[in-house]
Specification:
This protein folds into 2 domains: 4-75 and 150-234, Protein tyrosine phosphatase superfamily (Protein-Tyrosine Phosphatase, Chain A); 80-143. The chain contains 8 helices and 5 strands, in the order ββαβαβαααβααα. It has helices at residues 31-36, 56-64, 80-107, 116-144, 151-161, 178-190, 195-206, 211-219, and strands spanning 14-17, 20-23, 41-44, 68-71, 169-172. Strands 1-2-5-3-4 form a 5-stranded mixed beta sheet, with helices on one face.
């Protein structure tokens, strides 16, 4: 029997609802913990499906524990304009660094630096400049990054998350941040969470949100979801019934 002290939770792990868990792509050292959750379903929001070729250790784990794996490919379409813009930024950074270094050589006699102290100082300044440029480039990429999910992807995820027989469920993306957070934010809309609460939770896991991600969540049409299973008894009890599809009501009345 595995000692509970040896359990290691996946990065960004949290409980979303009873028996519904979220986190990053599980590593081998996370498997004892996931086994303790007695999972029935793993929802993977990653580019490629889980297979014996891609990850034999995780593949063996799900097979040995009879876990159903649901793969929703979430690669995200490439934005040619963004790629072109990023390329220009990289070129500008390179030109800036090359120009600064050329100026240093030009200011020294016969192209030689006069002292080791100046060399060290210049290299430190150049290194700091490169680091600042990298951070700026990363910020530009995230700001312009498109949402790697569609409404149809979310509807496919909901087909799994709303059915009781699939529980316990672990839902994850590569790092447990952006893609999983978008999926959970849309799930919260199904439960009539306020926008403030939804985005506060989003920021806890993702750290920031760009205009495209915010717009996607705000405009997600929860009422557009059409469940394949029409039996309201099969749905989790914490979801609110929506117009146009069968689901349990928020309030239940019991005879005494």
């Amino acid at each position: 029997m595995t000692n509970s002290s040896s359990y290691v939770v996946p990065l960004k792990y949290a409980q979303v609802q009873p028996k519904l868990y979220r986190g990053s792509y599980p590593k081998e050292h996370n498997l004892p913990f996931l086994k303790a959750l007695k999972l029935k379903t793993i929802v993977s929001l990653i580019p490629g499906p889980l297979s014996e070729e891609n990850d034999p250790i995780i593949y063996k784990f799900v097979k040995d524990n009879n876990i159903n794996c649901v793969h929703i490919p979430c690669k995200g379409a490439k934005d040619k304009k963004k790629d072109k813009k990023d390329k220009k930024v990289k070129e500008r950074i390179k030109q800036t660094n090359d120009t600064e270094f050329s100026n240093i050589l030009g200011n020294s006699k016969d192209g030689a630096i006069e002292s080791n102290g100046n060399i060290n100082k210049t290299e430190a300044e150049k290194s700091k400049k490169e680091e600042d440029n990298k951070k700026a480039l990363k910020k530009v990429k995230r700001r312009d990054k498109s949402v790697p999910l569609t409404n149809e992807d979310i509807y496919d995820i909901l087909q799994v998350l709303l059915i009781k027989k699939n529980y316990p469920i672990y839902i994850h993306c590569s790092n447990g941040e952006l893609i999983t957070s978008i999926a959970i934010a849309c799930l919260r809309k199904m439960s009539y969470w306020s926008s403030v609460s939804i985005f506060n939770e989003f920021l806890q896991f993702s750290g920031n949100i760009n205009v495209h991600e915010r717009k996607f969540i705000e405009e997600f049409n929860a009422n557009g979801f059409v469940p394949k299973d029409k039996n309201q008894e099969h749905y989790v009890e914490w979801i609110t019934r929506r117009e146009g599809w069968a689901g349990p009501r928020r309030l239940k009345f019991y005879s005494v």
